[in-house]
Amino acid sequence: MIQIVLAVLMVTLAAAPARAEIYFWTDKAGVKHFSNVHPPRSTSRPGIAKETKAKPKAKAATTPGRRFKVLAVYDGDSIKVKDAHLTLMVRLAGIDAPETGRGTLPGQPFSRESKRLLKKMVAGKTVTIKSHGMGSYNRQLAEVFVKEVNVNLALLQAGLAEVYRGKTVKGIDRKRYRKAEADARRRLRGIWSLGSRYQSPRAWRRQHPRK
Description:
Layout: H1 2-12, E1 22-26, E2 32-35, E3 47-49, E4 66-75, E5 78-82, E6 87-92, E7 95-96, H2 111-122, E8 126-134, E9 140-146, E10 149-150, H3 151-157, E11 162-163, H4 174-186, H5 201-207
Parallel strand pairs: 6-9
Antiparallel strand pairs: 1-2, 1-3, 4-5, 4-8, 5-6, 7-11, 8-9, 9-10
Helix pairs in contact: 3-4
């Protein structure tokens, strides 16, 4: 049974640009867990699943998406989700929200508003995750949907994120994303109301690299 679950998971997380590690372990109650988040320190000897070639039947588990419950919202473009078999850290693909800062480093303007909107849209809800591979920090890159609403696009439309300025992941309608950003910029929504004081989250991260 574990091999079947791992096969399905690896198909779902296929086409990853970076190596994906899926941990598996059994807790004290005998419940099996699978996650791209490292297990609790109290867990003894968690295993790391190796990529498994799935049988043709497993391909039915791929996109348009899998449904997950949102456990946490960390900022305007990062969440944690869980279904019956898998817990994932997810980075909303194709967008970049203002950085919230860390330690004594203050966050960017509108970082709180961006997180607040994302939380309002998805916190505690069941969402559909459309995978676009793996990103940095072993996170799943994905478009997130609440019913028919593309949450990534909604953040752009509200002016609380910009189109990601790094390498574009395959499968995203970048033209539609750019149009949403351009409309928010024209209407001076959110981050675009800052005018010349606005700094891209990408540029901010370069100035404040993680140590």
